[in-house]
Amino acid sequence: MNTHIYNPFIEAQQRFDHAAELLELNQATRDLLRVPLREFHFSIPIHMDDGSRKVFRGFRIQHNDARGPAKGGIRFHPLETIDTVRALSMWMTWKTAVADIPLGGGKGGVICDPHHLSQLELEQLCRGWVRQVVKNVGPYTDIPAPDVMTSAQHMLWMLDEFEAIRGEKSPGFITGKPLGMGGSQGRKESTGYGVMITVREALKELGISPANTIASVQGFGNVARYAIDLYQKMGGKVICVSSWDNDEQKSFSFRKKDGINLDELSSITDIFGGIEKEKAADLGYEVLAGEAWFEQEVDILVPAALENQINIDNAQKISKRVKILAEGANGPTTPEADKILEKFDLLIIPDFLANAGGVICSYFEQVQNNMNYYWEKDEVLSKIDVKMTSAFTLVSEFAKSNNLSMRDAAYVISVNKVAQACRDRGWV
Ligand code: NAD
C-alpha cells in the first residue's frame, strides 16, 4: 500500500524540471513546457437506461503542438483526475518527440466506470465527448486514440459523431479505429510489441538471449498481452501476470512457474483485462496477492497497467535478479523509486520510449487514412520495428556517451527537440 500522496502531474513536472536543468533551458521555455498549452474541461449529460439523467466530467488537454498536431488517447476510468490527464498529455509530447514522428502531445479522459455502463450509455458518452470538443480537435489540430478502457468501437462512435457534425468524411480525426473502417493493421499489437522490441534491443546489448530469460508482467490488457505474445515468440517465458478484480476492488497475481499460457488465460479474461481467479485456479495457476508480480525472481519486469505502481514503499522488494524494467504503462515508476533502483544493477527502459509503438502505429494509421491506401500487417509491424529500434538505439547511445540513465537520456533528447521547435517558431 502506497502511503504517499501521488500526483502524476507533479511527478511529470519534476521529471521535466530535471531535464530542463540538464539542458539549461531558459525561463520562458520552462514556463511554456511545464504546463499544457490548452485545457478543455466539460460536462457530458447522458440519458441512462433506467430513464434517469447523469452528468459525467470530461477533459481534453493539449500539452504541446509545436512539432505537429496534438496526439494522445482518451481514458475512461473512475479514478481519472485532471492532473492525470495533464501528466499523460505531457508524456505524449515527449513520446512523439523520442519516436521522431511529426506530432505533439495531448490526452483526454472521462471520469466514469465502464464496468457499470451499457453499450448505449457508452455510445452517448463517446458522442457527447466529441460534441464538447469538436471545435478544438481534428486531423490537423488534435487526434485522439484509445487508452485504458476505451476501444476501437469507442473510436468509431467518436469518428461518426465528428463526421456528422463536420459534414464530411475525416478518418484521420481519430486513430485506433476498427479494421475496414480506417483502422490500421497492427494497431492492437503495436504498443505491446513495441515494448518487447526495446527489450530485445536491451538484451542484445547485455549479450543475453531472450530464450534464457523469464519475465513477470503487471496487467493483462492490450499492452500486456501483446508484449507477452512477442516475448514468447522471441523464446522468453512469462511466469506471472496480474490484473484488477473489479468485484473485490483489488488486484491479484497469477503465477505458473513453468510459464503462463497466453491463449488459455485470455479465454478467462473479461473485456477490461480482468482475469477470473476461480477459473485461473482451476487451470493450475497460483492466485497470489496483487503485488506478487514484481517480487518474482525474474530477469525482466513489465509494468503494463497504470501509473504509480513501483514507488517508495515497494521498490526495495524487486529481486536483484531483475536486469530490465520495461515500462509498458505510462508513469509506473515514481522518481523516489528511481532513486532506490539506481542502486540496483537494472536497466530501466522509460515509459515514453518503451510504449511508443502505439503512437507510431497511430501515426501510420493517419498516413494511410490520408492516402486512402492501406498496408499489409507485416509492412506496418516492420515499419514500427524500424522506428522503435532506432529510438531505442538513439537513447541508449546518448545515455552511454553522456553517462546518463536511459530515462534522463530520453528526457534530454525529447525535451530538447520540443524546445527547439518552440524556439524555431518564435514562441520562446
Ligand atoms: P487496458 O485497459 O487494456 O488494460 C489494463 C490492464 O491493467 C487490465 O488487465 C487491468 O486488469 C490491469 N490493472 C488495472 N489496475 C491494476 C492494478 N492496480 N494492478 C494490476 N493490474 C491492474 O489498458 P492498456 O491499453 O493495456 O494500457 C495499459 C497501460 O499502458 C496504461 O498506463 C496506458 O496509458 C499505457 N499505454 C497504452 C497504450 C495503448 O496503445 N493501449 C499506449 C501507450 C501506453
What topology emerges from the helices and strands here?
Elements: H1 8-23, H2 27-33, E1 38-47, E2 53-64, E3 70-77, H3 82-98, E4 105-111, H4 119-133, E5 142-146, H5 152-166, H6 187-206, E6 214-218, H7 222-233, E7 237-245, E8 250-255, H8 262-266, H9 277-282, E9 286-289, E10 300-303, E11 324-326, H10 335-341, E12 347-349, H11 351-354, H12 357-371, H13 377-402, H14 406-424
Helix pairs in contact: 1-3, 1-14, 3-14, 4-5, 6-7, 6-12, 6-13, 12-13, 13-14
Summarize the structure.
This protein is α/β, with parallel strands linked by helices. The protein is 43% helix and 18% strand. A hairpin with a 5-residue loop joins strand 1 and strand 2.
Can you describe this structure?
- The protein is of the alpha/beta class and 428 residues long.
- The protein has helices at residues 8-23, 27-33, 82-98, 119-133, 152-166, 187-206, 222-233, 262-266, 277-282, 335-341, 351-354, 357-371, 377-402, 406-424, and strands spanning 38-47, 53-64, 70-77, 105-111, 142-146, 214-218, 237-245, 250-255, 286-289, 300-303, 324-326, 347-349.
- A seven-stranded mixed β-sheet has the order 9-8-7-6-10-11-12. A five-stranded mixed β-sheet has the order 1-2-4-3-5.
- The termini are far apart.
- 50% of the residues are buried.
- The mean pLDDT is 97.
- Nicotinamide-adenine-dinucleotide binds at residues 147-149, 191, 218-224, 242-244, 251, 273-274, 290, 304-306, 328-330, 355, 358.
